[in-house]
Amino acid sequence: MLTGKLITFEGPDGAGKTSALNAIVAKIAPRLGDQLVVTREPGGNQISEAIRRIILDRQNTAMDDRTEALLYAAARRQHIVQKIQPALAQGKLVLCDRYIDSSIAYQGAGRGIGEQAVYDMNQFATEGLNPDLTLYFDVAAEVGLKRIQTHRQNEINRLDVEALSFHHRVQAAYLRLLAAYPERIKRLDASQPLDQVVAQAIAVMTTQLPQYFATEGKSNE
Ligand SMILES: Nc1ncnc2c1ncn2[C@@H]1O[C@H](COP(=O)(O)OP(=O)(O)OP(=O)(O)O)[C@@H](O)[C@H]1O
Ligand SMILES: [Mg+2]
């Protein structure tokens, strides 16, 4: 039986997911110790990181949309089996930078394969392992892309360079997910400065998962 909890970080490129995740970990890691597992998709283990390099390689212009979706799901499967599931079985808190919702938004809507088709295909990969909580970093696609162009020139991948219309489809799909799963997905205003986004995230996590966060704010003052 799984007793741990899985929190996923979702949102468009440059929304600040990774920055916020790092800041949150710096705050909570001293208290949670090895009860905390921090990971990312695609990746989180040797096989999935190898798949990640294939997906994000800007040389791979010939990659078919469904191949891309299947590679993400394959990386996810391996990540779950090797890392997420064992951690949850030990009662740990797992924070994951992107998960299924990214596939639904980017491959389902962005690439146009179909959100339902990508969802269904992912059920095979995950055997129904859904996040307990998803933080949605809500920011206009243009703002996120501008942040990346300004600060992260050395690390722009194959999906970052898609047309703006692609990113608008991704964002629209995320907003549909937000509306469809209001219990699971909580919106953060990611247009605010990073420290305020982090404060919003901790507030949401404290409300939703008090068993891990109830003392937050007291322990690190
Ligand atoms: N709230 C914020 N306000 C302004 N700039 C920010 C904010 N959060 C992050 N940034 C900056 O924007 C850039 C993108 O942030 P980050 O890499 O955390 O985004 P991301 O959501 O993880 O993007 P990706 O989906 O591409 O991984 C970084 O240079 C970061 O310093
Ligand atoms: Mg990131």
TrEMBL record:
This is Thymidylate kinase. HAMAP family: Thymidylate_kinase. The keyword Transferase applies. Keywords: ATP-binding, Kinase, Nucleotide biosynthesis, Nucleotide-binding, Transferase. Pfam families: Thymidylate_kin. Its EC number is 2.7.4.9. InterPro entries: P-loop_NTPase (IPR027417), Thymidylate_kin-like_dom (IPR039430), Thymidylate_kin_CS (IPR018095), Thymidylate_kinase (IPR018094). Residues 9-200 form the Thymidylate kinase-like domain. ATP binds at residues 11-18.
